[in-house]
Specification:
Blueprint lengths: L8 E8 L16 E8 L11 E9 L4 E5 L1 E5 L5 E3 L2 E9 L6 E5 L13 E4 L4 E5 L6 E2 L7 E6 L5 E10 L2
Antiparallel strand pairs: 1-2, 3-13, 4-12, 5-6, 7-10, 7-11, 7-13, 8-9, 8-12
């Protein structure tokens, strides 16, 4: 069995509407602001807990893809192979300034990612984030239905950052 995280896995994200330019904006306050920091602080399958983390930066050539197999192939950040039984967080960031990428699901383990017509498109400079702190997370079932595909058909190579956080059986 792979070692589990000791301490915390912390995810941070912030988005705010900041008015600039037009002087009429100076008298208005932003209507939306999100500043989130989520720490998975314990091991085990409980709420707010996560045991494994995977992070990678991949360059994907045009016409190619990168598959993230959540069960039995994924290696954690210290190189151990893990089989997730619950996905707690998935973040995919497209570093490209010109090319879009698509996320495609192969089954129930990743179906929540591509629930709308089978794919999610991440435009240049965009990201996709899915975080769940409840005890159950998103179930991962091994086999041919636990893979998320990051595909590039943009015409040029793209660089993608990927973070996966989850629990093991």
């Amino acid at each position: 069995m792979a070692n589990t995280v000791q301490g915390a896995i912390t995810l941070q994200a912030g988005v705010a509407v900041v008015p600039t330019g037009d002087p009429s904006w100076k008298t208005r306050r932003p209507t939306a602001s999100i500043n989130v920091e989520h720490a998975f602080t314990g091991s085990g399958g409980g709420a707010g807990a996560a045991e494994q983390a995977y992070s990678s930066q991949q360059t994907i050539n045009n016409g190619s893809n990168f598959d993230i197999d959540m069960a039995g192939v994924l290696a954690n950040d210290i190189g151990e192979t893990v089989t997730l039984n619950a996905l707690k967080a998935l973040i995919v960031y497209n570093r490209s300034t010109t090319g879009a990428i698509t996320l495609t699901s192969t089954g129930p383990a990743t179906a929540h990612v591509a629930a709308v017509n089978g794919t999610v498109t991440i435009r240049p400079g965009g990201f996709f984030a899915l975080v769940c702190s409840e005890a159950t997370g998103y179930a991962v079932v091994g086999g041919t239905t636990d893979t998320l595909r990051v595909a590039n058909s943009s015409g040029a190579a793209v660089t993608v950052d990927i973070i996966v956080v989850g629990n093991v059986p």
